[in-house]
Specification:
Strand 4 and strand 5 form a beta hairpin. Helix 3 runs antiparallel to helix 4. About 20% of the residues are buried. Helix content is about 45%, strand content about 15%. The termini are far apart. Strands 2-3-4-5-1-6 form a 6-stranded antiparallel sheet, covered by helices on one side. The protein contains 5 helices and 6 strands; from the N terminus they run H-E-H-E-E-E-E-H-H-H-E.
Length: about 200
């Protein structure tokens, strides 16, 4: 028992009220986008094509593999490769290998997405002319000035940049879909017990 009047060094030590913080998580492989220059890999597995489809269908029903459809696109199966606004489909083709089966991959683009994008873009141009013209006339009663109608300057401002905007959107969509395809392939390899080669 410590003597009276003698303080313990432990008792005198300042007590920190701050709780220890966990270390920052390291950036995982799935968090680093895959460059478009990296080709889609192949997955080798000992499973038969029928067993591959069965396992991936089960994983899809459990929410682990988005957009799975057996026999899609003329391949063994297809899964989603997200690339907003133009999502692709990752198609798997199967071949026999020394391990059992080899899955090679390709992506396809359903034409409905570009068609919808073009239709929406075109259909919104003229309503924009009407809305802009209405607003200008509301806030500036003397508008139009010098006889220049709204459509004369609005249409060039909206139509001329479209090719550059479309190119930028397309490139970003391709990069996102390519990265999404790589992530899906890693999931496929894990679900089938295969290896990426």
């Amino acid at each position: 028992m410590p003597e009276s009047g003698v303080t313990s060094p432990v008792a005198d030590a300042p007590q920190s009220s701050a709780t220890p913080q966990p270390p920052a998580p390291a950036i995982g492989e799935d968090e680093v986008p895959v460059p478009r220059a990296v080709p889609l890999p192949t997955v080798e597995t000992s499973l038969t094509p029928e067993a591959i489809v069965e396992k991936l269908a089960f994983a899809s029903r459990r929410g682990r593999l988005a957009g799975f459809h057996a026999g899609q696109g003329g391949g063994l199966f297809g899964v989603a490769a997200f690339g907003h606004p133009f999502d692709r489909v990752l198609i798997a083709d199967v071949q026999k290998s020394n391990a059992g089966a080899a899955l090679s991959f390709r992506t396809t683009l359903p034409m409905k997405w570009p068609s919808i994008f073009i239709a929406v873009t075109i259909s919104t141009i003229w309503p924009g002319v009407w809305l802009t013209d209405s607003l200008l006339k509301t806030y500036f009663p003397s508008y139009p000035w010098w006889g220049v109608q709204t459509w004369m300057w609005y249409l060039p401002l909206t139509i001329v940049p479209l090719p550059w905007m479309a190119k930028s959107i397309w490139g970003k969509s391709e990069a996102m879909a390519h990265d999404s395809a790589h992530r899906a392939i890693r999931k496929i390899a894990a679900e089938t017990g295969g290896r990426i080669v």
